[in-house]
Amino acid sequence: MSEPRRARFRKFFDRDAKRLVYVGATADADFWDRRWLESGTVEYFGPISRRGLVVRETTRFLEPGSLVLEGGCGPALASWRLRALGYRTVALDYAQKTLQRVRAGAPEVRPLAGDVARLPLATASVDGYWSLGVIEHFYDGYATIRDEMRRVVRPGGYLFLTFPAMSWLRRMKARAGLYPRWPGTAAELDRFYQFALPADAVAADFAASGFELVRRTSSLGVTGLCEELGAGGRWLGARLAGRRRPVRVARAAFDTVARPLAFHLRVLVFHRRSQATRASR
Question: Is residue 225 part of a domain?
Fold first, then answer.
């Protein structure tokens, strides 16, 4: 999940953990219900592009007919796209009003109320798990979420993980002292929203927990660049926000250039190793 209305959030640098801390709103169930309901009606129809992130990466590793869990699904558009391409899906979230909308508009994605830290699913029951911007919203860490991912993804299955990350541009700004230092006060903690995490540390943590990293890519170059450029970024973002084809083409081209240095999201794909494979290493 990319954060809504970025201008509302302040960013600090946590020097010890080498991560950005976004402050401004608590990302609880009520927050996400408001976020998704304010975004307007979701329409579940139309052609499915194979160039989109979720479709592109899923089809690279899993065959149609595979069961894919989307943990923290929001309006479940990722699940709907996969379902339309022949995958079986479970779309899980804890935002009840949002799930009601999904049940009304796309019941075929199998909407399910639940907590990503306590999944109501059997062990080794899914072939793939998409976590689109979830782990960064927990100040105390994502260990229980990671352990549940390991539990429900079958050996030989895949975990698709995205999160805001410390791009080259963000790392350079942090080294230059361009972010205020994270104070860690109670007032700021009460308004914690998310982290931008060091991707190498996340990859190493999941690798030590039974997952093998098989692919690393990035997404949302324009988003990351505009966020870090301040007023200039807001001006650029407004120019690239239209729906007309020339604007969309320009944004796609700009994104390709900006993504290697200024990506907002890191995308990691992991293969779930078997116990025997782990023991032999």
Answer: no
CB 75 within 8 A of CB 102: yes
**CA distance to 127, 148, 239, per residue, from 275 (Å):** 16, 16, 51
pLDDT digits (tens, 9 = 90+) for 80-135: 999 999 999 999 999 999 999 999 999 999 999 999 999 999 999 999 999 999 99
- What pLDDT does 2 receive? 43
Q: Is residue 235 part of a domain?
A: no
- Asked if residue 245 belongs to a domain, the reply is no
Range of the domain at 27: 8-220+265-274
β-sheet with 19-23: strand ranges across: 10-14, 19-23, 192-196
Percentage of the chain exceeding pLDDT 70: 95
Size of the chain, expressed as the number of residues it contains: 281
CB atoms within 10 A of CB 212: 14
Look at the chain and report how many structural domains it folds into: 1
Q: Beta-carbon neighbour count of residue 97 at 10 Å?
A: 13
The reply to whether 252 falls in a domain is no
43 to each of 40, 75, 98, 115, 269, how far by Cα in Å? 9, 10, 14, 25, 28
The DSSP string of 222-278 is HHHHHHHTTHHHHHHHHHT---SHHHHHHHHHHHHHHHHHH-SEEEEEEEE--HHHH
CATH number, domain of 205, equals: 3.40.50.150
Checking DSSP bridges between strand 192-196 and strand 19-23, what pairing results, if any? antiparallel
